[in-house]
Structure formats: structure tokens, C-alpha cells
Design a protein that fits this description.
The chain is an alpha/beta fold. It is 43% helix and 17% strand. An 8-stranded parallel barrel has the order 1-2-3-4-5-6-7-8, surrounded by 7 helices. Helix 1 packs across helix 2 (36-53) and helix 1 (14-27) crosses helix 9 (213-225). It is globular and about 45 Å long. The mean pLDDT is 92.
Length: 235
């Protein structure tokens, strides 16, 4: 598949999210993500507003579902989401129900391996249960807490190639990547590149980053889109 650029709208105001999304679309971003902070602040209303403003754009609802899988996925689909996120650490019945809702509602499921003791095995489990994509994810608190104890901050790049090699569905790497690292993800075989905190959003205040973000995003999108097709085997 061709590389895809996704921007994570990790904001708590729908107005700011819409403004940032419009700028991102002008710059060449392919997918919009209603980030977890936005969903917590605005809920279904935020997803509906994004769908109204961008009727043809894929929208990822980063629910991080742990239970009530069918209902959560169904509600987001009805609000306009095209993709929902379920956690590998959820019970496998929850993952199955999100996948069933995805099939029934015509949306795709992204399985997130955050917090798995074995990240590669977590990715395999998500694929085996029917997820359409894998999010290889090192968490915000995890990264910062480990660094605060004086240890090296973990990166999703540490095991990204192993995760890519372990599954046949497309992979996305998330968690503290620099811009340079994010741009490199397709070279690891991970075609879904997410830009968000702290790349384009202030990771502490969840406010749009200062500076000429649109021009920077355009350059980033051009670079990522310049990669050739990434060899993945969709289901």
C-alpha cells in the first residue's frame, strides 16, 4: 500500500481540532484522528463535527476500547468514524466484538498493543482476532516515567521491524517519535505514519504547536508520500 499520513488531533477543543484539521488537509494529510483527549472532551459530537467538515476523509476514533466493544465501535461508526481502536490488553471477546461491529458497520479496526508484556505477540494476537491494522504503541506515561527514573526512554522503533515481520496487516508506530523518526517509518515497512504529540501538538498543554506548522506538514507529507508502495498483505 502507499504510505498514508495521519494527524492525531490530541486537543480538547473541537474548534481548535477543526482548525488544525483544515490546515492539515491543506498540507496533504490523508487521515484525521479524533485523539483520545478530543474524544474525552467532545465525545461523539467531536467525531460528528469532523465528519461534517470533512465528508470524504477517513477518520480514526482513538477510543482505546477495553470493554463494551460492539457498542463503542457502533456508536463511533454512526457518528462518522471510519476506523476505531481496540486494545490488545482487552479480553479477546471484546476484540472480537469490535471486529464484528466493524464488519457490521462497514468500518475498519486498528488493534493497539500498548502495554503488552510481549509487543510482538500482542500484535500477532490482534491480527489473529481480525484487526485490519496494528498500532505498535509505546505509551505517553510509560515513556516519561521510565525516562524520569533515569533510564533510556523506549521507542516504538526498537521493535518496529519485528512487529512488521510478525503480521501481514499494515502497521503504524506511535509514541514519542521525532519528526525524522516518523518520516522513516515506511522504510521499516510501516506505511501508516501518524503525526501528533509531540510532533505537531504540544505534548504537555495539548495545544497546537507554534510556528509555521502548515509549511512543515506539507514538506513532511511530500517526503512520506515519496516512498514507493510498502509491501504488506491485507486480509
Amino acid at each position: 500500500m502507499k504510505p498514508i499520513v495521519q494527524i492525531s488531533l490530541d486537543l480538547t477543543s473541537i474548534d481548535e481540532a477543526l482548525e488544525t484539521a483544515a490546515m492539515a488537509m491543506r498540507a496533504g494529510v490523508d487521515w484525521l484522528e479524533a485523539g483520545t483527549p478530543l474524544i474525552l472532551a467532545e465525545g461523539l459530537h467531536g467525531v460528528r463535527k469532523l465528519r461534517e467538515a470533512f465528508p470524504q476523509t477517513p477518520i480514526v476514533a482513538d477510543l482505546k476500547t477495553m470493554d463494551g466493544g460492539y457498542l463503542e465501535a457502533e456508536m463511533m461508526a454512526k457518528a462518522g468514524a471510519t476506523h476505531v481502536v481496540v486494545m490488545a490488553r482487552a479480553h479477546e471477546e471484546t476484540i472480537k466484538m469490535v471486529v464484528k461491529a466493524g464488519k457490521d458497520c462497514g468500518i475498519e479496526v486498528m488493534g493497539d498493543n500498548l502495554g503488552c508484556p510481549d509487543m510482538v505477540e500482542g500484535a500477532r494476537k490482534l491480527e489473529s482476532l481480525g484487526c485490519d491494522y496494528i498500532i505498535h504503541h509505546i505509551g505517553y506515561d510509560e515513556r516519561r516515567g521510565i525516562a524520569a527514573r533515569g533510564h533510556r526512554m523506549p521507542s516504538p522503533l526498537d521493535q518496529l521491524k519485528e512487529v512488521v515481520d510478525a503480521v501481514q496487516v499494515p502497521v503504524q508506530a506511535v509514541g514519542g517519535l521525532s519528526l525524522e523518526q516518523a518520516i522513516q517509518c515506511p522504510s521499516y515497512g510501516a506505511p501508516l505514519v501518524v503525526l501528533g504529540a509531540p510532533l505537531t501538538i504540544d505534548a504537555d498543554a495539548f495545544k497546537t504547536a507554534d510556528g509555521d506548522l502548515e509549511a512543515s506538514l506539507r514538506l513532511i507529507c511530500n517526503k512520506i508520500h515519496s516512498y514507493g508502495d510498502i509491501a504488506v498483505h491485507s486480509k
